[in-house]
């Protein structure tokens, strides 16, 4: 499902205009993004948790030359599905 399709479905389900639904979705995504940027986790009960995960530094290999390289540690966004969502998908 694309963002455009999601906006259309939200607009229809919530009886909103497409512009209002798009603004609501954009605001929601921006708030989640801003919270993750600050290092906070976002819990949406019944859906899941958005959080920042740390990936440790590790040794890798350049696939073109085969020479070993050091891959630095970094932070990545993550999502963990909630119990309700997991049950619905099964």
Description:
- The protein has three helices and five strands, in the order ααβββββα.
- The longest helix has 20 residues, at 18-37.
- The protein starts with a helix and ends with a helix.
- The mean pLDDT is 95.
- Helix content is 43%, strand content 30%.
- With 90 residues, it is of the alpha+beta class.
- The strands form two sheets. A three-stranded antiparallel β-sheet has the order 1-2-5. Strands 3-4 form a two-stranded antiparallel sheet.
- It folds into two domains: 1-40; 41-90, Irregular (HU Protein, Chain A).
- Strand 1 (42-44) and strand 2 form a beta hairpin.
- The chain has helices at residues 3-14, 18-37, 83-89, and strands at 42-44, 48-55, 58-61, 68-71, 74-81.
- It is elongated, with a radius of gyration of 19 Å.
- Helix 1 crosses helix 2.
Spell out the blueprint of helices and strands.
Layout: H1 3-14, H2 18-37, E1 42-44, E2 48-55, E3 58-61, E4 68-71, E5 74-81, H3 83-89
Antiparallel strand pairs: 1-2, 2-5, 3-4
